[in-house]
Design brief:
By secondary structure, this protein is an alpha/beta fold. It has helices at 11-17, 74-78, 96-101, 141-144, 165-171, 183-190, 249-266, 274-296, 304-309, 318-332, 354-378, 448-458, 475-478; strands spanning 54-60, 126-129, 134-137, 150-157, 201-204, 228-230, 337-340, 385-391, 394-395, 411-412, 416-422, 429-431, 446-447.
Length: 487
């Protein structure tokens, strides 16, 4: 149904009546008027020819071990139980790379993390897979079959050695620094919509804590560019966005018409309030989304074969499978950026019992992620989409000793692995490396904003050109496009 176009600001009315939407999901999304997109113009044109139209950003919270997933290191078994200085390799703690990238919230002289000296062996076997011969551990049997479509980046590093790194990989900023908008918010800010009835930046499965809200936040870009959390519930997938049962559709339409009339009256008083105009236009989009979002999150028309492909017939893989199937359906319907949390907050944080934890956790996401890739590919969606699979940091090559530890690894931001796949990327490719013990990302490596710059480049955007008046970003915020992974 066509609603009247919502025209102008009405700050006085909202303030007097207490109807501000800033704190709600509806106030954080929406507004296709391009309020903060001035650098690109109202059409959302790109800076250069794009290779992709959408992004699915899969994030595993807690820090999976790069050593027991995508960067196996035989030297850990060969020198297990020895200290770093008892191997033929340079002690990685003494490397200039460690000192250059190290930034702990506790003072360096009292920090024991990152530097555990006793080598802990790998907890799983590994082998080469596919025509590309890329090594993956045995905990990923389904994903291993897709290896020739993946592009691994084994030289990623960050600086926060605690779980604020979950925000850092999405925003590029350390906990001690001023926060910055998330990668999804920048994509939202820079691009026009492909479907006016769905959010451009959708979030599935998280974040579940206030202190990780930054990972989907838009900050000074404005609330209309923040991620919109959706839940796997066809009856109520959009928190705060469902019409109350006590209100009929006709009554809601009359409410919108009243808002329109009030806006028209207020336009004379606030003719240039673009931010408020964007917020008010969110009412209209919210109305449209009441129909479109439930349809997108309704799996009843999916075939049994498809749901099984995602592991939705197994309790162990159901949650990840549902979240990833929802991501595919949203991309299929034109959502630009989908951020997916296939597992709950912090579960990959294996300070103890790493073998038990990772055996179980890999099994919960391996099949759903592989099924997602297969489904995207067979539908032709990988030709236009970029998939990013990441975590906030890796795990230490040394045995964690805190609390009498004997079977786990601590946080390790100095070098870890992510992978990417899809439009504009090399297939069956490994870029970069860590040292023989998996400690430091070699060479310059890639700070997390290099991932951001590369993803936005594939979308046709130059992160350095997405400037906001009055907001000067440091060089590290912009990142550098990783040219070596581009097809």
């Amino acid at each position: 149904m066509n609603l009247p176009s919502i025209q102008a600001g009405r700050r006085t009315f909202l303030a007097d009546c207490g109807m501000g939407f800033t704190g709600l999901a509806l106030g954080a999304m929406l507004a296709e008027d391009g309020v903060a997109r001035e650098p690109l113009g109202p059409t959302g044109q790109t800076h250069h020819l794009p290779r992709a139209r959408s992004v699915v950003w899969i994030f595993l919270s807690g820090g999976y071990s790069h050593l027991e997933t995508f960067d196996p290191k035989p030297a850990l078994n060969q020198f297990a139980g020895k200290t770093f200085d008892k191997t033929p390799f340079e002690n990685p703690v003494n490397s200039p790379l460690h000192k250059k990238r190290f930034r702990s919230v506790p003072a360096e002289e009292i920090n024991i993390r990152d530097v555990y000296p006793t080598i802990y062996p790998m907890q799983v076997g590994w082998k080469k897979h596919g025509q590309s011969g890329i090594e993956i551990t045995d905990w990923w049997p389904h994903l291993a079959r897709q290896v020739d479509d993946l592009c691994f980046l084994r030289n990623i590093w960050t600086t926060d050695n605690d779980h604020a790194a979950e925000n850092q990989i999405h925003t590029g900023r350390h906990k001690l620094d001023e926060p910055q908008p998330s990668i999804g918010a920048w994509a939202h800010y820079g691009l026009g919509t492909l479907n006016a009835n769905l959010p451009k930046f959708a979030v599935i499965g998280g974040p579940s804590r206030p202190d990780t809200r930054q990972s989907i936040d838009s900050l000074y870009l404005g609330p209309q560019h923040a991620g919109v959390p959706l839940i796997i519930d066809a009856k109520n997938p959009l928190p705060f966005g469902t019409r109350p049962a006590s209100q009929t559709q006709a009554e809601q339409i009359r409410e919108y018409q009243l808002i329109h009339r009030l806006n028209t009256l207020a336009a004379v008083e606030y003719p240039d309030d673009k931010e408020l105009l964007a917020r008010i236009r969110s009412y209209e989009m919210a109305f449209r989304m009441q129909e479109s979002v439930p349809e997108a999150m309704n799996f009843t028309r999916e075939t049994l074969r498809t749901t099984r492909l995602y592991g939705m017939d197994n309790p162990a893989t159901r949650v990840a499978g549902e979240n990833l199937l929802a991501a595919r359906r949203l991309v299929e319907r034109g959502v630009r950026f989908v951020q997916v949390f296939p597992s709950t907050y912090g579960v990959w944080d294996s300070h103890q019992k790493l073998k038990d934890n990772h055996t179980r956790l890999c099994a919960t996401v391996d099949l759903p992620v592989a099924g997602f890739l297969m489904d995207m590919k067979q539908r032709g969606l990988m030709d236009d989409a970029v998939v990013v699979f990441c975590t906030e940091f890796g795990r230490t090559p040394g045995l964690e000793l805190r609390g009498g530890g004997k079977d786990g690894r601590d946080h390790h931001p100095n070098g870890f692995t992510i992978w990417m796949a899809g439009a504009g990327l090399k297939k069956g490719h490994v870029h970069g490396a860590t040292d023989e013990l998996g400690y430091n990302a070699l060479g310059d490596g890639h700070y997390v904003t290099d991932i951001h710059a590369t993803v936005l480049h594939l979308l046709g955007l130059d992160l350095r050109k997405l400037e906001v008046p009055g907001r000067k970003r440091i060089d590290m915020d912009h990142g550098k496009v990783i040219q070596e992974v581009l097809a």
